[in-house]
From TrEMBL, chain A:
UniProtKB keywords: Cell membrane, Membrane, Sugar transport, Transmembrane, Transmembrane helix, Transport
Cross-referenced PROSITE patterns: ABC_TM1
The protein, known as: Multiple sugar transport system permease protein
GO cellular component: plasma membrane
TM helices/strands, residue ranges: 12-33, 73-98, 110-130, 142-163, 184-209, 243-264
Recorded topology in the membrane: Multi-pass membrane protein
GO annotation, biological process: transmembrane transport
PANTHER family the UniProt entry points to: ABC TRANSPORTER PERMEASE PROTEIN MG189-RELATED (PTHR43744:SF12), ABC TRANSPORTER PERMEASE PROTEIN MG189-RELATED-RELATED (PTHR43744)
Residue ranges of every copy of the ABC transmembrane type-1 domain listed in the record: 74-264
InterPro entries: MetI-like, MetI-like_sf
Keyword NADP recorded: no
Record's subcellular location: Cell membrane
From TrEMBL, chain B:
Species this chain originates from: Bradyrhizobium yuanmingense
Purpose: Involved in beta-(1-->2)glucan export. Transmembrane domains (TMD) form a pore in the inner membrane and the ATP-binding domain (NBD) is responsible for energy generation.
Tagged with keyword ATP-binding: yes
The name this protein goes by in its record: Multiple sugar transport system ATP-binding protein
Subcellular location: Cell inner membrane
GO MF, one annotated term: ATP hydrolysis activity
Amino acid sequence: MTNAHPIPFRAILRHVLLIAGAALMLAPFIWMISTASKPQTEIFSSELHLIPHQFALVENLREAFAKANLLRFLLNGIIVTVSIFVLQVMVALPAAYALAKLRFLGRETLFALVLFGILIPPQATAIPVFLLLHKIGLLDSYAALVLPFTISVFGIFLMRQFFKTVPDDLVDAARMDGISEFGIVWRVMLPAAIPAVTAFGIFSVVAHWNDYFWPLIVLNSEHLRTPPLAVAHFRNSEAGTSYGPLMAAAMVIIAPLVIAFLFAQRRFIEGITLTGIK
Amino acid sequence: MAQIELSAIRKSFDGTDVLKGIDFRIADGEFISLVGPSGCGKSTLLRIIAGLEPQDSGEVHIDGRPVDGIRPSARNLAMVFQSYALYPHLSAFDNIAVPLRMRRLSAIERLPLLGALLPGRRAKERHIRADIEGIAEQLDISPLLRRKPGQLSGGQRQRVAVGRAMVREPVAFLFDEPLSNLDAKLRVHMRAELAELHRRLKATFVYVTHDQAEAMTMSSRIAVMMGGELIQAGTPAEIYNEPGDIRVAEFIGSPKINVLPGRIRKDGGVDVLGTALKLTCNAAAGDCRIGVRPERIELGTGPFSGTVVHLENLGAEAFVHLAVEGIGSRLIARLADVKHLPAMASSVAFGFAPDAVRMFDPAGKRIELRMEQAERIREPAHV
Ligand SMILES: Nc1ncnc2c1ncn2[C@@H]1O[C@H](COP(=O)(O)OP(=O)(O)OP(=O)(O)O)[C@@H](O)[C@H]1O
Ligand SMILES: [Mg+2]
C-alpha cells in the first residue's frame, strides 16, 4: 500500500506548474473573449471583471461583420494559405528527392545552401522582394502574397530529412517497375512522406494565416486583405479603437485554426513536434 | 529466356575498387547463385546487371544486345530485394499491379481520377486483374491481395515481392538475398519454392546470397566472388569437390574444410605433420596447405592423432572437434554413426584417403596431385 503512491508531491508540483503555464498562455485569449462579450462602456470601466455584466457578444460580432467584410477576408486567407502550401509542396518534394536520393555533382553544396537559406529571416529579403514585385508590377495582388513563399527552404530541408529515411530499395524497385523519376516523387515518396507533409502543411498554414508583416507591406486594396489585416482595420478607425468589435473580429479570424486544431489535435501535435516550431 | 554476358565489369566507389574486372556468362534458363562474403560486391554486380548502377567500365549484354545506358525497366528484368521493397501505401494487389499499369496504361490513363473515366482503361484493368489473380493463385496469396504490406508476415511479403517480379514476365529474375530476413524454417521452405518456381518458369535466375546452403541446394551453377573478383564458377558439386582456390574451399561447406600445413619435398612428395602422404605433385618444393573435408576424415585408424575437445551430436550426424599438435585451429571430423562417439578428452587416431586431399600453394591456388605410383599400379590389378 505504501508504495502505491510513491511521491504524489512531485506530481502535484508538476501539475501546478503546468496549470500556471497554461493559465498564462490562455490569459490573452480569455481576455479577448471577455472583451468581445462586453459593451463599450464596460470595456473602459475601471473595475476589472472577466464576466461581463451585460452580454454584448452578438452586437459586437454584428458590428464587426458590418464594418469589415470579414467573410471576404477569411476567403482571402484560405486562397492565400492553400496556394502557398500547394506550390511549396510542388517545389519542395522534387527538390528534396533530388537532394536525398539522386547522386550528382555539387549535391552537398546545394544542400549546404539550403541550410544557409533557413538562417535568413524573411524580413531581411523583404525589401528586395518588394522592389522586385514592384518592377514586375505584381504589387497589390494575390501573386504578391503567394509567390515570395513558394520556395520554402525549410520545407525542402524537412522533406529531405524525411526522404533520407525512405529505403533506397524502394526507389530502386520503383525504377525497375518503370516509374519515372518524377513519378517516384509523387507515387512513391509523397505517400511515404504523408506525416511529414502534414506537419509541414500545419507549419505553413499557421505561419501564413497569421502573417501580418508581408500582407501589410504589399497590399493596398481592401478586397485582397488577409485576416490579420482585417483586425488592424478596426484599430485604425479614426473615431478611436472600438475594442469590442475588434476582439470579436479577432475571434472570428482565429476560429478556423482553432476548429482545425480541435478536429486534428493529434496531427497538430505531431506536426509541431516534428517541425520543432513553437 | 535470356542470356546475360558480363565482360570486364569494373566499379569503384570513392576510389576503392569494388568490382575488379568481372567476366561471366550466364546461360539462358540457368539458376546462378552469386555467393561470397559480405562486402565482396555481389549486390553491386546485381545492380549493374539491373541497370540501377552504372559500371565504370566493361559491358553488359542481354541476349547479345548491349544494354548499357538502357533504363532498368526497359531491360525487362525483375528484381526481388532483401527488404522486399513493397510500396507501403499500396495493397498487395496494387503492389503487384504497378509494373503492369506502368507498362500497359498510358500516362493519362494512370491519372488518379480522370484516368478511370477513359474508355480503354476498364478493359485494360480487367486484363491486369486477371493476370494478378493468376499469379496470386500460383503463389498462394489470393486471400491476402487486399492487405497492405504492413499487415503481412515476412514470408507473405516475400511472396508478394516475387509476384510483383513474376507478373511482368521478365527475361530474367534478379534476387538479392531474398530469404535472409526469414526465420530458418521458412527459409528452407521458400528455398524449395523458389527452386520449384525456377523449374516452372524456365527463366534465368541470378540469385545473390551469402548463405552457401542456399547456393548449394538451389542453383545449377555457383559463382564465388571474393574481394571484387569472381574466382570460380561451376556446378555445386564442382565447387564443393574441386575448389580452385583455398578461399572457395573454405567458404563452401559447413563445417568448414580442415586446413593442415604441409610441405612439398624436392622429389614432389608431400609431408603433412611429419607424415608422408601417398601423393606426388609437380609443384616446386616448399610450403603448401592441405584441405580435407570433415566427412573425409576417418577416425580410429591412421597416422595422425588428436585429442577430442568438443562433440556436437546433431542426431543424424555428429561433429568431433580435435585438437591436433602442430596446427593452430581445431580439426573437425564428421561421424555418420552417432552411436559410437569417442569420449571427451580421449586421444584418437585419424587419417584420410589420398583422394580426399586438396592441395593449395601459399597464395591459395590449387595444386594438382597425383596418386603415388604404387597405388596406381595396384588399382588396375584389382579390376
Ligand atoms: N553507393 C555506394 N557508395 C559507396 N560505397 C558503396 C556503395 N554501394 C556499395 N558500396 C561498397 O561496395 C562494397 C560492396 O558492396 P556490396 O553491397 O556489393 O556488397 P555485398 O557483396 O552485396 O555484401 P552483403 O553480402 O553484405 O550484401 C562495400 O564495401 C560497400 O561499402
Ligand atoms: Mg548485398
